[in-house]
Every structure is written in structure tokens, then in C-alpha cells.
Design brief:
transcription cis-regulatory region binding, single chain, LacI family transcriptional regulator, alpha/beta, Peripla_BP_I, six-stranded parallel sheet
Length: 340
């Protein structure tokens, strides 16, 4: 068996000091792009494998990031994770993807254990962040970035989306098409983002001079296709029936559209449906879905960049990056040739 490659061998080949090599491996100080490139080339040429577990035992953070989301099965969060991971990979970091399923204790378990594992940082979707746990994050030594909605107050860097405005846009669109009796089909857990979307829809109704009670809210009991599809039962049972449905996310909207079309309903002639997120399947659905677009990949990229900035300059002021959703109109609300 040949001699194993040491950190000194790599430093010599890269033409850097052992201290610079240590700074690169441990992330303790910023290394210039040109120096980083020489080190990475030397690592590749020597096939050097850093012992990250040893560095962790000595108090240094591992080259890993963790992303906590409330529903890993939702393609929106998968796309967000891809944005985080693409930035993480350029810095030599791995991504741990954790599904809290909206469960408070499960979230607390993840935050505690990931901090003890000395991960390089945590990105937490506020949909997975229940109000009692917000304060706990402020005492976690691991760098944290929260992805949430406008209006959150938290002493950490964050990426925020104006979910209230997104709900307003969706309801305003249905109102402009003449709909007044609308069902708000939400998901389980009653997340903060979902509540903000619902309140935005209520604002649109009030501004239009319509009775807010015309917006009926029903939340799915779970995240399975069967549980999402069951929301269609509320539509058929209502008297009078709603003429429009505003959904908490695209997964719910697609499930409802599929169920109703199988039962002979015409979308949007019999009922108009609006989703939320603009996942890839929204455009490919049996009836292309009108939805409120959130740029999931860009949100993930922004969160990762904020996290690395926080890690490299812990005493720097917290930063906030904002995104504004936009309405994407397709055939689930406007028939081909119908003016809008």
C-alpha cells in the first residue's frame, strides 16, 4: 500500500503555507479565489481526502449545511434545495435535507442534533418554524438563515417572500373574472405562509366591496394525494357551490383539478382553480394551472449566499433579501381565447 497523502503534501504542491491550507479546510478565514483554485487542483491531483470528522471533534464545523423544510415531497422545496445545493457545492459543502413534516418536536430534534453535529449552517423554511420555536434559534451557535414571509421578526439573516401579496394577487384575479363564492383550499398544519396567503385573499375581497364570508376556508387533513383530493368533496357538498378555488399550493390545486375532471367537471367553465408556487407540474397538468409564482431556485441561492456571508463575518449586521410573488395566468382560470 502506498504512502497516504498528508495535508503538508497538498500544501507543498499548491504552494501555500500549512496555515492557509488549514484555513481552507476549516473555513476559519477567507481564502482568495486564486489560492482556493490552486488548493483544489492540488487536492484533485493528490486525491487527498480531508478527515472532516476529526476536525469536528476538535471544535471546527464540518463542511455541511442543513436545510429544514415542512414538506420534502413538495417540488417547490426540492427546487429550493437545488438552489442551496448548487451554491454549497461551489464552496465544497454537502447539503443535508431534513423534512420536519410540520411537526414541532421533530423540528426541535433536528435543530438540536444538527447544531451538536457542528454543521456549517442551518437554513430553515419558516413553514417548518412554529412560533414557540423562533426564540430557540437565536441561542443556537450555528449560523442560521430563515426563509419566510414578510412581517417576521427574527434576529438572524433571512430571505422573505411577500406571501400576503401572493394571496391578494390570486384572489384579485378571481374577482376580476367575476368570481365571488370562492373556496380557500389549504394544507395541514396552518403554516404562517398559508395564513398570510389567506389574509391577502381576504384583503382583496374587502377592497372589492365583497363580503369576506364568501371566502370559505377548508384545510386538508394530510399531505397525501388522497387527502389533498378529498378537498374536492367540500366543493361538491357546498350549496351554493363555489365558482372558484384558491389553493394553498400547486400540489393541492393539481389534486383537485384531477379529481374534478375525472368526475366530469369542466375547468374553468364549471369552476376556476388557482394554485401557488408554480412548480414544474403546474404547466404540464391536465389543465395548465394558473398559479402564483415563487422563484424557488433563486430563493435557495439567496439563502445559501446569506448563510456563507454570516459564517465568514459573524459580527456583520443581519441582512434581509425580499422576493415578490407574481401571478401566472393559464387555462385553469382563463379558457383559450378568453380575454383577460
Amino acid at each position: 500500500m502506498g504512502k497516504s497523502v498528508t495535508i503538508k503534501d497538498v500544501a507543498t504542491l499548491a504552494g501555500v503555507s500549512l496555515g492557509t491550507m488549514s484555513n481552507y479546510l476549516n473555513g476559519t478565514k477567507v481564502v482568495s479565489p486564486s489560492t482556493r483554485a490552486r488548493i483544489e487542483l492540488a487536492i484533485k491531483q493528490t486525491k487527498f481526502v480531508p478527515n472532516r470528522s476529526v476536525r469536528s471533534l476538535h471544535g471546527n464545523r464540518t463542511h455541511t449545511l442543513a436545510l429544514l423544510v415542512p414538506d420534502a415531497a413538495n417540488p417547490f422545496f426540492a427546487e429550493l434545495a437545488r438552489g442551496v445545493e448548487d451554491i454549497a457545492r461551489t464552496r465544497g459543502y454537502l447539503l443535508i435535507y431534513c423534512d420536519t413534516a410540520g411537526d414541532e418536536e421533530r423540528q426541535r430534534h433536528y435543530v438540536r442534533d444538527l447544531a451538536e453535529m457542528r454543521v456549517g449552517g442551518l437554513i430553515i423554511s419558516s413553514g417548518a418554524l412554529n412560533p414557540p420555536n423562533v426564540g430557540e434559534l437565536e441561542h443556537v451557535e450555528t449560523p442560521v438563515v430563515v426563509v419566510g414571509q414578510e412581517g417576521m421578526t427574527l434576529s438572524t439573516s433571512s430571505v422573505v417572500i411577500n406571501q400576503h401579496h401572493g394571496g391578494y394577487l390570486a384572489m384579485r384575479h378571481l374577482l376580476d373574472l367575476g368570481h365571488r363564492r370562492v373556496l380557500f383550499a389549504g394544507g395541514p398544519g396552518g403554516s404562517r405562509a398559508l395564513q398570510a396567503r389567506y389574509e391577502g385573499a381576504l384583503l382583496a375581497l374587502r377592497e372589492a366591496g365583497a363580503d369576506p364570508s364568501l371566502l370559505t376556508r377548508v384545510d386538508a387533513t394530510g399531505r397525501t394525494i388522497r387527502e389533498r383530493s378529498a378537498l374536492a368533496d367540500n366543493i361538491t357538498a357546498m350549496d351554493p357551490r363555489p365558482t372558484g378555488v384558491l389553493c394553498g399550493n400547486d400540489m393541492i390545486a393539481i389534486a383537485i383539478v384531477n379529481r374534478l375532471t375525472r368526475e366530469g367537471w369542466s375547468i374553468p367553465a364549471d369552476i376556476a382553480v388557482v394554485g401557488y408556487d408554480d412548480i414544474s407540474d403546474a404547466q404540464l397538468a391536465v389543465v395548465p394551472l394558473t398559479t402564483v409564482k415563487q422563484p424557488a431556485y433563486e430563493i435557495g441561492e439567496a439563502a445559501a449566499r446569506l448563510l456563507f456571508a454570516k459564517s465568514e463575518s459573524p459580527d456583520a449586521p443581519n441582512r434581509r433579501i425580499s422576493f415578490t410573488p407574481e401571478l401566472v395566468v393559464r387555462e385553469s382560470t382563463v379558457m383559450p381565447g378568453q380575454p383577460f
